[in-house]
């Protein structure tokens, strides 16, 4: 069971894993393309460096879109200006 989203139990599912945990990529290699935070709830992203982004960052930055808006799979970063990548936290109140 994955704990990245704070999920404790999924009804009818023995072992639920988020996309990041499903990928089996070492945690040290994953960071958000939009902010410097390495922990949290990630989804795959396109058009950027690492290939991962926080869902919260995707919601906070208006230029971001989703290939599949219903499942929020594949965060599309092609419209994001390069100044936004990896510079500041996607949460203004979060101190780094």
UniProtKB/TrEMBL annotation:
Iron-sulfur is among the record's keywords: no
Keyword Ribosomal protein listed: no
Name recorded for this polypeptide: Protein AF-17
GO cellular component labels: nucleus
Entries under InterPro entries matching the protein: EPHD, Histone_Mod_Regulator
Organism from which the protein derives: Fasciolopsis buskii
GO terms under biological process: regulation of transcription by RNA polymerase II
Domain PHD-type: 29-96
Annotated keywords: Metal-binding, Zinc, Zinc-finger
GO molecular function list: histone binding; nucleosome binding; zinc ion binding
């Amino acid at each position: 069971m994955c704990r990245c989203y704070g999920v404790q139990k999924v009804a009818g599912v023995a072992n639920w894993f988020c996309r990041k945990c499903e990928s089996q990529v070492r945690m040290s290699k994953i960071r958000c393309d939009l902010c410097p935070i390495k922990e949290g709830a990630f989804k795959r992203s396109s058009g950027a460096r690492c290939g991962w982004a926080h869902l919260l960052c995707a919601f906070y930055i208006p230029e971001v879109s989703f290939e599949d808006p219903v499942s929020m799979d594949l965060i599309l970063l092609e419209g994001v200006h390069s100044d936004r990548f990896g510079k500041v936290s996607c949460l203004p109140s979060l101190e780094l």
